[in-house]
Write a structure and sequence with these properties.
With 169 residues, the protein is of the alpha+beta class. It contains three helices and seven strands. 23% of the residues lie in helices and 30% in strands. The model has no long low-confidence stretch (mean pLDDT 88).
């Protein structure tokens, strides 16, 4: 069965995520990125966008999402980059958009909760995500790496999502 996009996003009926151990991630490249984040932190630095250059992640480049945090009493999360594979799966490019711009209330609320929790955690998170529309459910692994302005405040996230698989309910 070919993977058709979730188009339009307003048809998302559920999004569930479960935190998983790094060792449970299917993609070695995702595990390596988390290890790299921890190595930078162990060297006494807070990982930043500059530590994760696209040319060092060619295998994952279409699966990368960069999210900026616009500070305020209720932080706004804006997609700096929405990778091409993610764009295909969702059926639209979210680059430049905020979570509030997503037409599905289910998806927008889930994203807001996830990234607010990631802000509080301040460490890499790994999830198994299940997203469903009226026709199909898809499951995939995702990592969220917090990124900081050089040794300063949390400024965003590097997110990598594995290619989703259609699951039968």
């Amino acid at each position: 069965m070919s993977l058709r996009p979730l188009n339009p996003l307003s048809v998302v009926t559920s999004l569930d995520e479960t935190e998983i151990a790094v060792e449970a991630l299917d993609l070695a490249d995702m595990r390596a990125l988390i290890a790299r984040w921890h190595a930078i932190r162990a060297a006494g630095h807070r990982p930043s966008y500059d530590d994760f250059r696209p040319e060092t992640m060619w295998n994952l480049v279409g699966n990368i999402i960069l999210i900026d945090i616009e500070p305020g009493p209720s932080p706004v999360f804006r997609y700096r980059l929405h990778g091409t594979r993610n764009t295909h799966v969702l059926g639209m490019d979210l680059t430049g958009k905020t979570f509030q711009d997503v037409s599905s209330p289910v998806l927008a609320q889930a994203l807001q909760r996830t990234y607010q929790a990631a802000m509080v955690a301040g460490v890499p998170l790994a999830h198994r995500v299940r997203i469903a529309d009226r026709e199909h459910a898809r499951i995939y692994d995702r990592i969220i790496l917090p990124l900081f302005e050089r040794n300063a405040a949390l400024s965003g996230f590097l997110v990598v999502s594995a290619d989703p698989q259609i699951v039968k309910d």
